[in-house]
Amino acid sequence: MKILVCISHVPDTTSKINFTEGDTKFDTNGVQFVINPNDEFGLTRAMWFKEKQGANVTVVNVGGPETEPTLRKALAIGADAAIRVNTEAKDGVQVAKELANVVSQGGYDLVIAGRESIDYNGGMVPGMLATLANANFVTNCINLEVDGTNATATREIDGGKETVSTSLPLVIGGQKGLVEESDLRIPNMRGIMMARKKPLTILDPINASVETSSVQFEKPAPKGAVTLVDPDNIDELVNLLHNEAKVI
Amino acid sequence: MSVLVYTESEQGKFKKTAFEVASYAKAVAQQLGTNVTAITINAADASELGNYGVDKVLQVNNAELEKFNANAYASVIEQAAKHENATVVVVSSSADSKYLAPMLAIKLDAGYASNVVEAPSNTAPFTVKRTAFTNKAFNMTSITTDVKIVGVSKNAFGLVESSGSASSEDFSPSVDTSGVTVQSVDKATDKVTIADAEIVVSGGRGLKGPENWRMVEELAEVLGAATACSKPVSDLGWRPHSEHVGQTGKPVASNLYIAIGISGAIQHLAGINASKVKVVINTDPEAPFFKAADYGVVGDAFEVVPTLIEKLKAFKAQNA
Ligand SMILES: Cc1cc2nc3c(=O)[nH]c(=O)nc-3n(C[C@H](O)[C@H](O)[C@H](O)COP(=O)(O)OP(=O)(O)OC[C@H]3O[C@@H](n4cnc5c(N)ncnc54)[C@H](O)[C@@H]3O)c2cc1C
Ligand SMILES: Nc1ncnc2c1ncn2[C@@H]1O[C@H](COP(=O)(O)O)[C@@H](O)[C@H]1O
User: Fold this and answer.
1) Can you say whether residue B108 is alpha, beta or left, with left for phi > 0 and alpha for psi between -120 and 50 degrees?
2) Is there a domain that residue B82 lies in?
3) Does residue B177 lie within any of the structural domains?
4) Which atom of ligand 2 is nearest to the CA of A5?
5) Which residues on B lie below 8 Å from A126 (Cβ)?
6) Which domain holds residue B263?
7) Ligand 1: which of B134, B231, B282, B297 to mutate, most ligand atoms within 8 Å of CB?
8) CA B261 to ligand 1 center in whole angstroms
9) CATH code for the domain defined by A2-214
10) Angle, nearest 10°, between helix axes A125-132 and A92-106?
11) Residues B62 and B144 occupy one common structural domain
12) Is the pLDDT of residue B320 over 80?
């Protein structure tokens, strides 16, 4: 089985989010970048397929040279090869079209992407990619089994979960549950050394067009101070929630 | 030209989000000087939509669509959009709508903005405000295609009633449910879901162990709320993963969020700060959650929560 894992290169979850150039650009100053958490669960599941069922795992990112350390980290975790499509990621559809080109050239059976990226958090790339690539699609995926060309997936729905049967070629939008938090792997020295020798191919973009453009960023308005209620006066809390906040 | 809105139903009844997206569609239609058409799939009575600004309803009744199939549903909405010559398609942020919207975007060659929190600030270029960086910021985004898809964030726009009435029309699109087949659905029908809940009661590691969740559940019962938890609580297996909220878990956009024994880490707050009113109960006055909350109680959850339950019961009895 040939697996492609889509890796989005995102600010670490502890990052303070700031903007520059008249609030039009994300300020990367002092920001640590990591593998998007949802993609890390997917990559770890891909490792499981590789070890248990035999699979070749390629990771891919659409982005500039600054994303290469993130791809190297994925190689150190155990992916066999990496591809960087050499263009700035501008919107969901542009990224999806670039990825669809990679998929059609590489003939992948299974594409594992994340439910959403924590930066743009559009939740759109995987579904667009599946439709462009004419593949089946399951998102919010919390479990995936593959048997030959058949696949069984579980997806989270509002208030529960649903198990579906489908077939390859398949694109999933994965999340925690594909593997557990405790299954995530920290690259060891050997992995890091080996990653240096693994191929990281730089691919020319097809220069797919965008359909949306970011005009400006805004930060949420600062919050007023908290109203403290004495633990011995919980009646007051009920009163405030009813009369002031009007939420009960 | 019209605005098309996909109004979701469950077992024939509209979800509350259906009325919210209808209200949103009406606001867009007013800006564009056009009408709102709704597309419904297996909804029993569509007339209610008129109360939220819908002028016309395309009703699809098809047994093959009884179980959700994202590709088939996207194709039905695509056919409706073409039939109506829609220039804007509005969908919700439910799990199902977020699943089908990107597929619909490709089918319609439409630009798609998800997690939108306000009516368009401008219609030419068509510009909307969406959340970005998992609720840590907002982004003004222009959609530059002829057809545009807007995914509206839950509880961001609200319900806007209007006095119109909606005409109904049967719509029979072609349906292809191949590809992905639902085998089983595991869903508690008697519990409020985090996605639908007006109130969410959430517990953190401060509650010490799973055996102490009875009071969280009881508080939720009194309030008709959904239960949630912080990430470590689900990682420890105290509560199911589906209850994990935050930046890497489920987003919460309820009217009231009550955090019990949760410190308020940046990743937790990112996922819940779209909630309108936040209450924190924590022994440590230095816990970061107090900076994000509207109301706070510095106290021991094991004393405060039982008292709160008792007071709320009395309040409910009085206001019943
Ligand atoms: C990549 C990444 C992603 C993450 N994503 C998320 C996410 O999506 N959601 C999330 O929640 N976290 C997330 N986290 C974890 C986050 O950083 C915090 O570790 C976590 O939110 C802390 O959970 P907590 O508040 O329950 O526990 P703690 O931080 O241990 O806090 C417990 C709190 O309970 C209080 N307390 C103790 N006893 C009592 C008592 N008797 N009564 C009242 N209060 C009491 C304490 O004062 C303390 O403030 C993420 C972390 C990383 C690295
Ligand atoms: N620039 C990118 N390169 C590779 N994969 C991406 C990129 N952007 C998004 N993805 C994939 O698509 C998923 C959803 O992203 P998004 O639609 O931005 O929320 C991510 O979890 C990744 O798996």
Assistant:
1) alpha
2) yes
3) no
4) 23
5) 102
6) 199-318
7) B231
8) 8
9) 3.40.50.620
10) 50
11) yes
12) no
Distance A121 CA to ligand 2 centre (A): 8
Nearest to B308 among A38, A91, A234 (CB): A234
The answer to whether A150 and A183 are in contact (CB under 8 A) is no
Cis peptide before B240 (omega within 30 of 0): no
Same domain for B140 and B230, yes or no, is no
The answer to whether residue B238 is domain-embedded is yes
Examine the domain organization and report whether B163 and B226 are in the same domain. no
Tokens coding B48 = 């209610």
Contacts of B198 (CB under 8 A, 6+ apart): A247, B224, B225, B254, B255, B256
Q: Which of B143, B15, B169 lies closest to B87, judged by CA?
A: B143
**Token pair belonging to B283:** 């022994």
pLDDT at B58 over 90: yes
- Nearest residue (by CA) to ligand 2, atom 8, is A8
Question: Residues with Cβ < 8 Å from A65, sequence gap 6 or more?
Answer: A84, A86
> Whose CA is closest to B68, among B96, B93, B35, B98?
B96
Indicate yes or no: CB of B141 within 8 angstroms of CB of A213: yes
CB contact under 8 A, A219 and B223: no
Q: How confident is the model at residue A247 (pLDDT cuts 50, 70, 90)?
A: very high
Question: Cβ–Cβ contacts within 10 Å for residue B172, how many?
Answer: 12
- Which residue from B183, B198, B241 is facing A164, i.e. has the nearest CB? B183
CB B267 within 8 A of CB B241: no
Interface confidence, given as ipTM, is: 0.95
> pLDDT at position A161, please?
94
- pLDDT, residue A110, reads 98
SS (H, E, C) chain A: CEEEEECCEEECCCCCCCEECCCCEECCCCCCEEECHHHHHHHHHHHHHHHHHCCEEEEEEECCHHHHHHHHHHHHHCCCEEEEECCCCCCHHHHHHHHHHHHHHHCCCEEEEECCCCCCCCCCHHHHHHHHCCCEEEEEEEEEEEECCEEEEEEEECCEEEEEEEECCEEEEECCCCCCHHHCCCCCHHHHHHHHHCCEEEECCCCCCCCEEEEEEECCCCCCCCEECCCCCHHHHHHHHHHHCCCC
Is omega for the bond preceding A126 within 30 degrees of 0, making it cis?
A: no
Q: Is B78's pLDDT higher than 80? A: yes
Please report, for the domain that includes residue B241, its CATH number: 3.40.50.1220
Round to whole Å and give the CA distance between A165 and A154: 9
The residue type of B158 is G
Q: What's residue A124's pLDDT? A: 97
* Chain center to CA of B297: 28
pTM of the model: 0.95
pLDDT at A223 over 90: no
